[in-house]
């Protein structure tokens, strides 16, 4: 069940992947706006719609944590009129200091609630509720739909599209360059780990169908040199993993959830469904106490800070050589 790259093969794969990523997103124009122009410009969103933006926006609203985080790497927090309510939660966010500078916090707002904020740009991920898009556009509000961040290429594409939308395309390129630099640093450390010491892991998520093959977690595991047990077992993202499958996978490590929603959610009760189940006690991760609580502000991150999620996986599995603070954030804002 366990799949491990040899050191040489992993190195060649990772270097080739990073090289390919440098070219990602360059095949089709996304926007026509000058970096600091004050006039109107046009951005083509992920749905293929050409969105006219009349001026560089300074009242931005986005409808996911990751898009909030991307914007906060491109413009100062004063250019955002609202952000996700979890962005100031230290259990779930790595940008709490920036979020504290944004007065309004939102969770799945209606089109009417968004319009009441008087935004001059709304950014919507394509996995969210798109029924609000036309309603907002009918009110004359520019809305840009961006792609979901499932892996590095899609995250980079989203960064470029959002950077074009906020009128800062060069800052978007800067963020992507910073991502590559960080990945090269992580890769150099992973290369020092012998193939026979590489480990496997299963993520126990509150989103029970998340974490399989083709998820952002799976992409991060590949870059971290760690085997994602769900993917190795053929479980696709969006498919639930049974406890019988978990026992059969028998990973070296279990990643446990820590989400508490500002203390409103009892995550301990959820964890007991697994840790208190007699059928799981034969697993080596439980027997060896190899239970980890990676920082979710990185682990579920699909912004430019996805790279810190890669490092967080390595820290949880391989130890202090990959330690990092919980407020790391890539930014191109001077």
| Main sheet makeup | 4 strands, parallel
Structural class by secondary-structure content? alpha/beta
- Quaternary organisation: single chain
Give the helix proportion (percent range). 25-40%
- How many separate helices? 14
Indicate how many domains the architecture comprises: 2
* Proportion of strand residues: 5-15%
Order of strands, main sheet, comes to 9-8-10-11
CATH class of the largest domain: Alpha Beta
CATH architecture designation of the largest domain: 3-Layer(aba) Sandwich
Walk me through the topology:
Blueprint: H1 7-22, E1 41-44, E2 50-53, E3 60-62, H2 65-71, E4 82-84, H3 96-99, E5 104-106, H4 111-116, E6 121-125, H5 131-138, E7 143-146, H6 152-165, H7 169-190, E8 200-203, H8 216-224, E9 227-228, H9 229-232, H10 243-249, E10 253-255, H11 267-275, H12 284-287, E11 291-292, H13 296-299, H14 306-318
